[in-house]
Amino acid sequence: MKKERIKKDESLKRIHRKSILFNKREIQAIEHYCQKYKIKNKSKFMREMIITSILKKFDEDYPSLFEMKPTLFNQNLKRKI
């Protein structure tokens, strides 16, 4: 039985590189965390933490039904004439 090759979505391919610099305390904390929780793939861990944080913030900032958004009409109310 031959293995079927799964076609991967090219748009999901990771091609963009970013660099992060840490100070000694930050890197020690990361190393300690990874050892404690047996994280072997630090790249995946950091990527997931960053994306999780971003999605959480997006969720918090999602407009609600009763949120007052600035419009042309209520923006002028805040200004003094």
Keywords:
flat; mainly alpha
Element layout with pairings:
Blueprint: H1 24-36, H2 42-61, H3 72-78
Description of the structure:
This protein is 49% helix and 0% strand. The mean pLDDT is 84. It has a domain of 38 residues. The protein is flat, with a radius of gyration of 22 Å. The protein contains three helices and no strands.
Quick synopsis:
This protein is mainly α and about 80 residues long.
> What coarse outline follows from CA principal-axis ratios?
flat
State the separation between the terminal residues, measured CA to CA.
80 Å
Radius of gyration over C-alpha positions, nearest whole angstrom: 22 Å
- The percent range for helix content is 40-55%
Give the topology string: H per helix, E per strand: HHH
Residue stretches low in confidence (pLDDT < 50, at least 5 long) are none
Total of DSSP H or I helical runs spanning 4+ residues: 3
Oligomer: single chain
Strand residue percentage: under 5%
Average the pLDDT over all residues and give the rounded result.
84
Total beta strands: 0
